[in-house]
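Q: I have two molecules that I believe assemble together. Could you output structure tokens for the complex as a whole instead of separate predictions?
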Amino acid sequence: MLTIDNLSLTIGPDLQILREVSLAVAAGEAVGLVGESGSGKSMTLRSILHIEPEGSRVTGTITFDGVDVRGLTGEALRQMRANDVSMIAQNPHAVLNPVLPVERYLIEGMHDAQGQPTKTAKLRAGELLEQVGIDAVDRVLRSYPHQLSGGMLQRVVIAGAIAGKPRLMLADEPTTALDVTTQAEVMAILDECRHELGMAMLFVTHDLDLAAAVCDRIAVMKEGEIVEIGLPEQLRDNPQHPYTRALMESRPAGLTWTPEGGPTS
Amino acid sequence: MTTPAITVEALNKTFHTGAKQKVKALDEVTLSVDKGSCLAVVGESGSGKTTLARIIVGLETPDSGSVTVSGKPVAAHANRRELRRRARDIQMVFQDPQSSLNRRLPVRVAVDEVLRAHSRLSRAEREARCSELFTLVGLETRFLDALPSELSGGQKQRVAIARALAADPAVIVLDESVAALDVTVQAQILELLASLRATYGLTYLFITHDLSVVQMIADQVVVMRQGRIVERGTTAEVLTNPQHPYTQLLLACAPRPGWKPERGMIRKLREEIAS
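A: Yes, here they are, computed for all two components at once.
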């Protein structure tokens, strides 16, 4: 469905951010893009939606359903962003307008991008919040961003991102700013939504174990290049690239307790 | 029996966040850290762990309760002499080295300032000591005159550790000191901290939200939730046989090989905590 072929990105005269990145995501598939800061994982995501920093030079091709997305402009690009590909970012505070209730964020997306009447959009906003596991739907809809916790806000952003039933979700460290227990909950919700909608996902994270939990395949990035792609088990049990091995060894596998009682094997 | 390096008794602290709103950041917190050991304080945001650290080093005053470091009480309103003496007992390393180093000055100045304040060394001796400290934390001496912006996050955190060591303290409080670092760098810094502790018999109070980090560095753990200690024990005990449902929830939510996030289980443990 999504094919990235030889994508390179350079900022300024010689700052090369991406070097010939090639990656494919099949319909319904979840692919993790794992790497440390500065490895180029976020920039890869941003190139797909044409939101790379101004002045970047991009070469290579990105196709979505056979259409060259780098060639899209104006209405066609807007349609792709509205209907096919959504994105959630790390910090929900940067996404939501602080002076409007979150309801407006959800309605605006559906009204403007999909042309739904405001009334239907309002009902749908409530349904979406239920879908992301929010109980007090009415209260949350009327709340302003500062009245809600980070985990709650990120759910609102996910609700907005799945409103258009996209076929591909680009998730850029969506849980990095959250507490571990909230992270687990938000990831579970994202994973459920993905399966319900049959949505593909490109999931950027620095946490290999987190990626392994929700992804079918994982690509490891370092200094703008993909150094290894494989199944999560493959990377864990038999890493090929020294960098993948270094990542593994940095997090000793010693936490084994599970709620079912007793350690896992 | 060894004398504890840190003793904290019945600490209480309430923050007033609005006209009628208040948050109990610490609620009867009592703990002690043995000399030469490392105690991890684990909790999520709002658990009170950072407030605890700030009170222990004297950056914040408790409403009630007492803190003793190296056998000396940490007075609520200390005079300059007392502050100076305390700095030689206890030092702190913060989460973000970017904001704890002056971005306009070469990084050596951060270390030199501490030496100037707490030692009687001559300029030449201080220079030599700075080089020594840099070497000790695994930084090449060519970085002495670098600006913070020229260093990576890991290197900056090494400077922050060198600065803490410059006062020759017995105790170091580390507040999420590896949280902002990439995992491979995190592992290196934890290794450095472990070797410094072994070499100099340092005592650490390590504030963190990350159980893998706890496992890598601590002997003892206390788990905090909403200002209270809900569980304490050796690292092995707490991580392999957690008793409190909140500790269980933290462990169940920590990503690890073979782990899947499950909403049902999270909900069940949350209900247990509430009851």
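A: One point stands out. Residues 183-200 of chain B form the longest helix (18 residues).
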